[in-house]
Amino acid sequence: MNVIALSIVLVLVSITIGIAWYSRRWTRTTSEFYVAGQKISWVQNALALTGDYLSAASFLGVTGAIAILGIDRTWDAIGYFGGYIVLLALLAVPLRKVGKFTASEILTTRFRASKTVRTSAMLGSTIISSFYIVPQLVGAGALMQILLGWDYVFSVLIIGTIVIIYVVMGGMRATTYNAVIQAIVLWFAMLLILLLTVILFFDYNPMNIIDSVSGLVPPEVAAGMISDGAVVEGNYQEVINEVSDKLTGGADTALTPGAFAPDWMNLFALATGLVFGTAGLPHVLKRYYTVDKPKDARTSTIGVLFAIGSFYVMAIFAGLAAMVLLYPDLIGFFQAGEESVAQNMAIPLLGELVGGDVLLGLAIGGAFCAILSTVAGLLMTIGTTLTHDYYMELINPDASEKKEVFVAKLSIVATGIIAVLVALALGDQNVSFLVTLAFGIAASVFFPVLFMSVWWKGYTRQGAIATMATGLIIAVLFVVAHLVGMTSVLGLPVLVNPALYSLPSAIIAGIVVSLFTNDVGEVDKFMALAHRKEE
Amino acid sequence: MTEKKILLATDGSKPALMATKKAIEEAKAINAEVHALTIEEKAPMTLLEKKQENIAEEKYLEIKSRGSEVAKKYGEQQGVKVVEKKFESGPVVAAIIEYAKEIDPELIVVGNSGRSGWEKVRLGSVAEGIVKKASHPVLVTRVKNDDYLKDILEIARQMPLPRIEELEEIKDIDLEELEIKKQLGLAFGTLLAFLIPFFGLASMVSWAPDLAAREIIGYSLNTALFWILLIFPLGWVTAILFNQYAKRYDRAKES
């Protein structure tokens, strides 16, 4: 057990929970929490959006994936980044102007409310959000493994319980503030780790990192090729030399693409899922509820682009540096069967290498807070969807606010438990990879339906249902096929992301059905609302 | 002659109702009008967070009602003129001080919830903030007992806070004026400005792997990685340009 690191983690987590408690009940004076007299809403919103977005997938997953597979996994970084451009260009402002942020609400505003619309939207939202929670728990499990040496199953159970209790006991109100703090902590943790790495190992020049990974066989590939038990010993330079000698001639080095998505279909599937996923993620869209004005929707989004963009640039360099400096360790984790550590722990381990227990603690603590607040935000999205969009609309419209919040909490507990169980089964996966699957589903279910509702006058209610149903069915089918290891479904190869099939299918289904039906809803009023001139 | 004014800050909670009653009494005594100020604080919260908070607040404050409207109604009953003033957003203390500067009242009346010790440290206090910063006399009230508040509580109970309002009114707007096609053009232009290099990278990696792996400026930096790193600044520039153009569409035309 590592006392210093553990203490830092505990302090960070206490701060997080402390904020939840601080802002728990009575917040009339939260204004004194802000700078008195200043309006800083869009900055705050940008930070809250950033904090919600930078989850374990970005902090642990992206760096971890780049560290073991090299340049191919930088797609996660540019895809997560690009998603916000799609959101900014197509949806952020219209959604703000309509004042609706879920597919269910948007469709109800434009078309009449229908049971089918609400049910499919509710299913989509719940599946996507749950899928997003699972990797966070996987990340948390791996963190506990290296921090406390706990067993993975035990870790996930404990963390899952803590998070659920945290949200239900009143973490709700605090998610915004936690997201803000989390954004700041993660960004600076990444900066600090990268700076120290560059100073201590790369002669003050980040470009030297790139130089030293060129020609390197990515650890996951190398581990696969030396599975005959050849021992990897020595410092990182010796091991790199030995492994590279053994495997010379291999085209897959850290800087040559192909280690993860080996052909154009896989590559385009991944790129499509990532870049269109953000605009379909329920918890990201929900966040715009807190944005006050249409122009704030734009400025907040641009703020996010700068925050996450700079973060991912750092993550790319940190991931590559981790590949070099942790080379023997990473191969060793694979050989020892500790996949969850090999896949996701590059950044905490790099922190430990350059900053000892203090940075190890900071990295783990930061990741932990990220997980806590991301899961909290996701569970709240699920709670809101199930109650506000479904329960209140279809089952019990007269429920009091009290009852509504109670039902939300109940659904939060139920979903939380399901997510914990799924996380137990997927412990050996990279966190960012799992999140890309959630992106793929979101890109197929909600992105097309929102996009077409907001911009196409000829879109019909039946078309919308067809879009969501097609996207959901195909995306989930291929995700499950990929996770259980099938190589082809219906004669189509199973790719690293479902979006290459499911997104176009969803759009085509929507267009075709719309052409044969004519219930365009209150299209004029809706368009006027969504595209009116208002600052 | 300028009318005497009393500034009342109220959020419709029980302590605020006490302050309201006191303000009206004082106004009656010195023949002043009451300016009832309500500030709706817009913290960035999601819907569920807001509802959760409403419930929690009501539990803590016993009642949550429409602050300034209750004051107005109570004023009518007591024969005191009440001017309603609502601020949509803003730090509470700062807003009250600002408004006081504007109307120059005889007195500022504000309720104190009576928290002390740790609770006060934890939650802060609007009353204390005003006492410290205001340049007008301040009267801070404490809740006496429910009997004293009976009449105003009754009014407040009839005027609870509305449920969180969600649907915005759809006004009749001329669709032609909105230039939806042009707006869509801008959206697509922005999108393509980013997606072409984005999928261009994927294409190069897929179909021109040699080009992707070619070293370009030293440090073993190859075309693919250079392109990847370039995507970020490209995205930033695209976003800023989009904002510049989009602003135009949001500015209402002056007729």
User: How many β strands of chain A by DSSP?
Assistant: 2
What's the rounded overall pLDDT mean of chain B?
Answer: 77
The first-level CATH class name of the largest domain in chain B: Alpha Beta
Q: What number is the mean pLDDT of chain A?
A: 83
- Under CATH, the homologous superfamily of chain A reads Sodium/glucose cotransporter
Topology-level CATH name of the largest domain in chain B: Rossmann fold
Rounded to an integer in angstroms, the radius of gyration calculated over CA atoms of chain B is 28 Å
Biggest sheet descriptor of chain A: 2 strands, antiparallel
CATH architecture classification name of chain A: Up-down Bundle
Find the biggest chain interface.
A-B, 100 and 89 residues
What's the oligomerization state? heterodimer
Just name the CATH architecture of the largest domain in chain B.
3-Layer(aba) Sandwich
Helix proportion range of chain B: 55-70%
Q: Give the helix proportion of chain A (percent range).
A: over 70%
Major sheet summary line of chain B: 5 strands, parallel
